[in-house]
Amino acid sequence: MADQDMEKEPYGRRSTEAPSEVMDTKPPSEKTLTAEAERENIRHANPNGFSYTETGIDVKASEAEFAELQRELSGISHASRKVTKTLSRHSKNAAAIKDVEKTAASDTSGDEPFDLEDTLRGDRAAEVESGIRAKHIGVIWEGLTVRGTGGVTNFVKTFPDAFVSFFNVYETMQMILGLGKKGKEVDILKDFRGLTKPGEMVLVLGRPGSGCTTFLKVIANQRYGYTDIQGDVLYGPFDAKTFAKQYRGEAVYNQEDDVHHPTLTVGQTLGFALDTKTPGKRPHSMSKKDFKDKVITTLLRMFNIEHTRNTIVGNPFVRGVSGGERKRVSIAEMMVTSGTVCAWDNSTRGLDASTALDYAKSLRIMTNIYKTTTFVSLYQASENIYKQFDKVLVIDAGKEVYFGPASEARAYFEGLGFKEKPRQTTPDFLTGCTDEFERDYAEGRSSENAPHSPETLAKAFLESKFSAQLSSDMEAYRKSVTEDKQRYDDFQTAVIDSKRKGASKKSVYSIPYYLQIWALMQRQYLIKWQDKFSLVVSWITSIVIAIVLGTVWLKLPKTSAGAFTRGGLLFISLLFNAFQAFGELASTMLGRPIVNKHKAYTFHRPSALWIAQIFVDTAFAAAQVMLFCIIVYFMCGLVRDAGAFFTFYLMVLSGYVAMTLFFRTVGCVCPDFDYAIKFAATIITFFVITSGYIIQYPNEKVWIRWIYWINALGLGFSSLMENEFSRLNLTCTSPYLIPFGPGYDNIDNQVCTLAGSVAGSIDVSGSQYIIKGFDYYPSDLWRNFGIIVALIIGFLFFNATLGEWLTFGEGGNSAKVYQKPNKEREELNAALVKKRDDRRANKGQSESASDINIASKAILTWEGLNYDVPTPSGELRLLSNIYGYVRPGELTALMGASGAGKTTLLDVLAARKTIGVISGDVFVDGIKPGTAFQRGTSYAEQLDVHEATQTVREALRFSADLRQPITVPQSEKYAYVEEILSLLEMEDMADSIIGSPEAGLAVEQRKRVTIGVELAAKPELLLFLDEPTSGLDSQSAFNIVRFLKKLSAAGQAILCTIHQPNAALFENFDRLLLLQRGGQCVYFGDVGKDAVVLRDYFKNHGAICPPDANVAEWMLDAIGAGQAARIGDRDWAEIFADSPELANIKDRISQMKTERLAEVGGNFKSDEREFATPFLHQLTIVQKRTNLAFWRSPNYGFTRLFNHVVIAIIAGCAYLNLDQSRTSLQYRVFVIFQVTVLPALILAQVEPKYAMSRMIYYREASSKMYNQFAFASSLVVAEIPYSIICAVGFFLPLYYMPGFNSTSSRAGYQFFMILITELFSVTLGQMVAALTPSPFISALLNPFIIITFALFCGVTIPKESIPKFWRAWLYQLDPFTRLVGGMVVTELHNSPVVCKPSELNIFNSPAGQNCGEYMENFFKAGGAGYIVNNATSVCEYCAYKVGDQFYTGLSLDFSNRWRDLGIFAAFIASNLVFLFLGSRYLNFNRR
Q: What's 951's DSSP letter?
């Protein structure tokens, strides 16, 4: 090891000295002038633009020589664009030239191109000078075996399964505690051993599913989600356990997916990482701010994304930087951790070839300079990337089949008897050797006498010289570890030095806890502040609701009439703000992956995040709640007292904070969203019922009364009541003053029916009102506030501790899920497997003879095609004057750099664009394509959007059923589907459920399903494919292209965009259309054998392709698509526009059009139907699929049913066995009011479901599968059975537990009302979803809808008290007016009322009259109620005699109940009308 360091020493010494040699002494201003002057001189001297014809690289020959010299010295491959400071003046000119050549692509500061190596060497030198020790740690692993769950066939769960698993309490508890049966254990990795020293890079190769990700995770010490890990992994002298405990942040893993906060900018994302990772000891005692700025700039320049510094990162739903740039942000974020052991999982996904190579080179440089230990897994790695690595590890099905020098791996496998295919890159060859169907044996070797399985390959490796060499290396390394104590002391010192002041030496975190909270508070502020859309919408919601409340309860009277309504206002003000926090549930669940990643990177403790979040959120909420309170408080005329106002504000705000923390705690505890919704719905119901507004505290059942003490809503409401009423005296007016009317004007003989009144007085003390009516004492106000504060602290404590302990969603990928087998499918699968075995047995012969024959002869041509889109700065041209054609039997590739317009051209040709202006001609056989064109073409898009609950076979059959003509018999369509399954080699997954990208088929399998679905349509004209190979490993990519070649040979016309194919792939294409940035055509023509035609074209125009280069990569560099300057002094698009080749193409196109018109002319088919099948057939097929999707989404149906039943049972228990008393009368109305919570439950579930289905519909509609009515109606119909079950589950407990009227005519009516409410809520949810672009926006509309419905239906505020403006139209338009009106009168009609003694109001009759005589005129005039005993002079009065008297006060009438039911049902119809109109005319799919 010491020797190795000695070898690298001269290089390190030379480069640390270098900066001092080339000190430039000119002042900065002069330097700038010189550079500008030079630039101008060069520009005048070279009118044709800047370029070099002699090489394809943008730096001059001297630079190339210098790079060569450096490579010899150090073994580092230098990035082709680098210009180091030791270059001559001559190449400084080159630098200037390059800068002019490069326009706005990158705003790199300064004239000199960025040199990563120089920067890093300078940094390291500064560190050494400042006495900062190096952290070097090697990794050695032996006998490493990792076990996980698998090997069990999981069948798809259906709606009934949810009941079984729910009522199986034992299993449910086991699952929650994580003890349930997980299936049998399988070995994911078996007996791995190896050694990587500091400064070495290991490439990990294997097919998807072979165990590469598991290996990288375990090496980076991320062991969560595996059942058992055996063997030793040592980091220097530390075992895995010690390393995890003391140095967790030193071993880091970069996952394949990019998870970031979408509303932070790139600079802020990296800035936050640096806030938590800036070391305590910095080079030259640099300030924290300078250090942070320097590192961010270095990282952004290193990946050429400096221009994105102030752009938000974004995600699939929020527009931000591009996918490739987001990947680079993930890479840079992990580099900030400055870990010593780094594992990178497929980090080049989505990067084009030149960026991927730059990334590999920067890893190489960092590894060399900082002596990190680096592991990388890559798919489709090019030869140049492969050359950067020291060692390679090849994995086959969890077995180690090679670990050794990268340079000798190819020879090793050839020595085993494998033969390489022509032009195959080394990584492809090594991976191919592990695939039994792809590998070729050399002559005289076969599976009999050469390794042929993972076991035999692993055995061959164990017996090889590399294994023996590895053993001796490991032995020597172990010895050096025990001897070289200094190195590990340095490591420990370096780790301690990197900590900031105040951080514990034992902690794995670099900064102390309070600084973590501070950094997170700054980040949380940015997240909230930059998410302007959410911010604006929540403010608008808050203000509008405040104004509505203010107008409804405008200037409340200080009389008995304003007593109960005041309580209602206080309750709604508290409740609305508390439920603004409901969104926390979703954001906590969705934020988990980021928390898990940052915990692994040791940026911060999870608990610090929860504490920081609540501080920032409270600050934001404080302003919003303040405005809300000001509007409501002063419009409604609550007590004008500064102390009272601020107490009101404080209570509403603390209620919000407590509920926010409650929802976050639920989000922390629950494993998934369905559990969280069930749990939250149950607890919220308890909270609302025990809050003291709906049932007063003294009347609550004893068994739920205790909840009040841990219920922030209840405590907050009581405090608000105490605050308001303790400062208020009410005047009693009729109808609260009994008796009232002519002749009743002596207060001594009247009584106020308001609680807390005193006989003989019309003034009621507010304090007495709440003491008697609610059992609230004004002296308890601050005690209750104290309890709320205690609850807030308690929730925060739970949230923080549970956040540290519980980890969800870090395990490996889940196993596939299958449809349960039946006889038909078993026979079909057996036939598929037999076919596959036959095909493999005679590998060579059957390739050419294809089983499918395509009869199309149509030719697609396009001439002078332009496409313009509107942008804020005017029209932008994305495609410019493009000519071309696609013929049957030919495979045409469409290529170009990222952003050249490849997908745009496909969209335009496939008639998929919905915005922009298209000019030019597109013809099919010389005729303009009609409405049937989209139906006759198939387009496999880049994103794999599928109905997640279908099996692969069902998805293909669905496509065939709807897109092949109705005249084709179904048996024939289904037989064709089996052909496709066989051709795409999907035998094993035919009955597998597609699922989501997180849990379902893998990327590559989903890609095949996308292609299969399009092929099953049997396109008559054309097949378009957009990047069918991106994200796949080389083998899968090769299989797909080989299959496309087979299809074209059978007569299909295919146009396909492709990303960076290797030479073997590229050879399969017959013709190429090459685009450059700006959508200009650079080449259209044949490729030729070994790309000879293409090479000749470039050669004729001065660009010669080196013999060993991959033409597909080289041609992109030649036209200047990468970072390098183009070859030649003219724009390649201009060259092509003036070339004889283009003139030829134009002639060829007109010739083809004439020929085809002559052929087709006579028998031209005029089948211009939009869809291949009639409307009724579409309805049947789509409905069948939607029903199946609902049946296979058990969580969706069951969560909804569970919430219905639980809420009904809780309400039923709270109001158990109501009697005939006056209070029970009020409670019966509140039970009915419980029905109005149904929309709140249902909307939250229906809207996302509709939005997901709509995404799938958009894809399928663009292929003209079925029309929008079939889509929208299928969702409505599919919901009906679940709605009926939910209505029954809700009705039974809610109706019979409180003891409602059980006469069948009454009970039947009430059930119908609940069923209509259920259907109304579902159609309302679908309508709102159809009218809004995303479920996020529809969720923001829900509070408006629900609060408006509840406010204006006449319960919370009686009809007569609603202000005239609202009463005139909104009261009538409110569906709940009908619901409440119909249900209340049906329950209370002719229902006798018998007051309890405590409910009687007592007054004296005047002298000489008994009660009967005194009250006679009152009752005659229609006064409500009765006197218990008419004969006495002490009158005991009960406010109601019969239920009808109660609802007459609400302006309701029994005779209108069927009318109300009819109007309520009509609202469902209006929802459907808007739903169908919305789905028909609103297209949110902008392309």
A: B
CB distance 1426 to 1394 below 8 Å: no
Q: Is the pLDDT of residue 126 over 70?
A: yes
Complete DSSP assignment for 59-91? S-HHHHHHHHHHHHHH-PPPPTT---TT--HHH
Cα–Cα separations (whole angstroms), residue 1460 to 1284, 1349, 1366, 1374, 1464: 21, 16, 19, 11, 6
Q: What is the DSSP string of 777-789?
A: -GGGHHHHHHHHH
pLDDT value at residue 388: 93
- Rounded Cα distance between 1106 and 1088, Å, is 17
Dihedral sign, Cα of residue 1228, residue 1229, residue 1234, residue 1238: positive
Distance CA 1026, CA 939 (A): 8
CA–CA separation, 1430 vs 30, rounded Å?
A: 111
Q: Residue 142 in 3-state DSSP?
A: strand
| DSSP secondary structure letters along 1043-1086 | HHHHHHHTT--EEEE-SS--HHHHTT-SEEEEEETTTEEEEEEE
Do 142 and 474 touch, CB atoms closer than 8 A? yes
CA distances from 743 to 736, 845, 1426 (A): 16, 113, 19
| Token pair 């800036």: residue | 278
Q: Choose between 811 and 1407: higher pLDDT.
A: 1407
CA distances from 264 to 347, 824, 1480 (A): 21, 53, 36
Query: What per-residue confidence (pLDDT) applies to 1163?
Result: 60
| 588 alpha-carbon distance from chain centroid | 13
Measured distance CA(797)–CA(512) in Å, rounded: 19
812 has pLDDT over 70: no
Q: What are phi and psi of 119, to 5 degrees?
A: -60, -50
Per-residue b or e along 106-145, where b marks 16 or more CB atoms closer than 10 Å to that residue's CB = bebeebbbbbbbbbbbbbbbebeeeebbbbbbbbbbbebe
Asked if residues 1030 and 350 have their Cβ atoms less than 8 Å apart, the reply is yes
Q: At residue 2, does pLDDT exceed 60?
A: no
**Distance in angstroms (rounded) separating the CA atoms of residues 1440 and 316:** 61
Pinpoint the alpha helices (H) of 115-239.
116-129, 159-167, 169-177, 212-219
Per residue in 835-849, pLDDT (tens digit) is: 888 877 776 444 444
Which residues are CB-contacts of 407 (< 8 A; sequence separation ≥ 6)? none
CA neighbor of 400 nearest in space, from 217, 138, 142, 139:
142
Q: pLDDT confidence of 16, banded at 50, 70, 90? A: very low
1157-1179 tens-digit pLDDT: 888 875 656 567 889 999 999 99
In this model, does residue 1209 exceed pLDDT 80? yes
Distance, in Å, from the CA atom of 1199 to the CA atom of 1194, rounded to the nearest integer, reads: 8
Its sign, for the CA torsion 333, 335, 336, 339, is: positive
Please check the confidence at residue 11 and state whether its pLDDT lies above 70. Answer: no
Q: How far apart are CA 1384 and CA 1359, in angstroms?
A: 14
Task: Record the tokens describing residue 1060, joined without a space.
Answer: 């960076």
pLDDT average, residue stretch 307-331 = 82
> Residue 1118: CA atoms inside 13 Å, Cβ hemisphere, count?
25
Cis bond before residue 698 (omega within 30° of 0): no
Please state the three-class secondary structure of 1446-1476 as a single string.
HHHCCCCCHHHHHHHHHHHHHHHHHHHHHHH
Among 270-274, 495-499, 1277-1281, the minimum mean pLDDT is found in 495-499
- SS3 letters across 462-515: HCCHHHHHHHHHHHHHHHHHHHCHHHHHHHHHHHHHCCCCCCCCCCCCCCCHHH
The sheet that has 251-254: what strands, in order across it?
Answer: 238-239, 228-235, 139-149, 185-196, 399-405, 391-396, 201-205, 373-377, 341-345, 251-254
If one counts every other C-beta atom within 10 angstroms of the C-beta of residue 26, the result is: 10
Contacts of residue 1137, defined as CB under 8 A and 6 or more positions apart, other chains included, come to 881, 1081
